[in-house]
Amino acid sequence: MIAGSDLQAGSQKGFLKSIKLKTLITMKKLYLFFVFASFAMLPFLSNGQNLVNNGDLEQWDDANTPTGWDLYENISQSTDPVHGGTYSAGQMSATSSKKFRQDIQGIVGGQQYTISYYYYDNAPNAKTRIWSYWMDAGGNYLDDDADVLRPAVYSDDKPSWQQFNVTLTAPSNAAQFRMEVRVYHQDNTEGGYVYYDDFDIEASSTNFPEPTNYPTDFTATTSGLDIDLTWVDAIGEQLPGAYLILGHEGTSTDFTAPVDGVPVGDDLDWSDGEVAVNVSYGVQAYSFNNLTPGQDYTFIIYPYTNAGSNIDYKTDGNPPTATAQVNDVVIINQEDFESGTLGTWTEYNVTGSQIWENYEFGGNKFARMSGYEGGSNENEDWLISPQMDFTNFISITMNFSSAVNYSGPDLQLFISTDYDGTGNPNDFTWTELTGDATWSDGSFSWVESGDVDLTAYTGESVYVAYKYTSTADESATWEIDDILIYGIHTVGINESKHTELGFYPNPASNFIQFTENRQGKLSVFDFAGRNVMTVEVNKGTNRIDVSSLGTGTYLVRFNDNNNKIKTGKLIVR
Known about the structure:
- By secondary structure, the protein is mainly beta.
- It has five domains: 1-43; 45-203, Galactose-binding domain-like (Jelly Rolls), CATH 2.60.120.260; 224-326, Immunoglobulin-like; 332-488, Jelly Rolls, CATH 2.60.120.200; 494-572, Immunoglobulin-like (Sandwich).
- It has four helices and 41 strands.
- Strands 22, 24, 25, 28, 31, 32 and 34 form a seven-stranded antiparallel β-sheet that branches.
- Strand 37 and strand 38 form a beta hairpin.
- The radius of gyration is 33 Å and the shape is globular.
- It starts with a helix and ends with a strand.
């Protein structure tokens, strides 16, 4: 007879194995007839091959070693409960998680796979979950489908077999799949059993037509020396399994389209000026890193279905393209002190009990130093930058704002190439730059320093510092804000073509205005080097809306049509 539990579980294997062949051969033939008749109605489908070795757990080297499995902690052969066939695998919980694993080879990127297995958890001192990964050819884990393959939830106790079943598209660079389940102790008790049976991973045999639509909002954005591509996944009757992104240097949107049946593999070597990369459906982003400063790059995206010789690219119509220019102006250090601390800068107290601190007034935060506390006090206190690498720049500029009130010694600005980052600054060599900057003249009026040229230190690792002094008779209060140190890369830019960009008002809240005698492009970069705004600039007076920018410090770069560059610092309040 056929066990009722087998029918309820829906196990084809259990159904067939429970039939007594000699007496029920007619029933078996009738069953197979209906199976084949059903598949005949679906001409694009065929029986898949289970890629799991000994997935039904019918083969054992010994009572604790299932044949073909790579890792089997606390595993033992079991005949009760069994989902189908003669054996299942029982795994006992312990103080730490125990693993049951097999690495599946032959995975094809872009191919759909159905991943399933049965588990029986009815023990109050054991629980289980899947903990699997897609892997590349080198065995490196891929992050795709983490929420499904490595869920945060565990199994619930039930007096029946339960099934894990999901269909996923393998990432474009996948070549392996780590099929792993784990058992854990429950409620601080251990020694309970969870049982597994009928592991199955099958490639979808459906040959899908080409995708209906292209993705939308395909955008290229610069971030330092990187270009970040983003898009919104294609929708429609036929969704893609993945995307092919092609890229080349320059602004041309002419690309050679891929051909159906001929997969294009990943090629991330820019030496020939071209690249290709496959990205799975659902990711919606990809980054190209460490690109050439000042270089334009253009990209195009093609959705596709299937894999191998069945790959089907969508190439008709107008595939989306995106172009971006990598920054040749790089922000080396920026500090607006809005974190409520001194940020990346540190204070060093040589004498006196007063030190540099973060201070807030009128909603603005800045670095502040005063030697006054119940009267003037003798102090020497340094505010020191992090170490900065000035390698591969042809021009380096520093800009900041200062405010002062009360009488006392002037604040000084220094630079050092031998400071160790922690010691007393007086034990090292410092070159004074105070005279290269414009300083506040009192009444706590904020004054822009202008550009302090640090180009002489190209190729060096340096520290920049403010030195405050006060005496028992005089102790001014000095405030520093909106420090910006940036450089122009050596590639493609002539030093003589870089000048300062002047605009007003600054600080600004709604707009800036400036006059240029050439057309060009104005870009605004945040402190992380991300391009947050790009606008076309006309010859003559230009008024640029900056109301969409958040409060903070920005680098503004104007590049005219003769590749002449002007830069300036913008403060948005």
